[in-house]
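Quick bug: Putative membrane protein YgcG output formatted oddly.
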Amino acid sequence: MSTNHPSPSEDSQNIFESTPVSETETHDESHYASTPVPQRPPFPTATLVLGLVAVVVAILVLGANLLQWTYDPAIVGASILAGAGFLLIIGGILTHRNSSRKANS
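Here's what came back:
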């Protein structure tokens, strides 16, 4: 059981040998200057605020059932919506401020 491997020809290239950089591509500074730097996506403020609202509602429901808390649902609902809106506005301002600061530098 002998296996005959073909002998490498002069035209074939060994994939394990490194090719000199000068043969594959040229490095000029204009290529790197025009390449855009990938931007990090903005912080998901809405997801954070939605999670906080869900946690607050869960705490209030558990407190009402287990600890016999009493509260006016209309006032609590309005307070939760106002707090969520305030957090979304602050998050939007901070995101805009950080993006404009990065654009200026």
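Actually, after a second look the formatting is fine. The longest helix spans residues 73-104. Closing.
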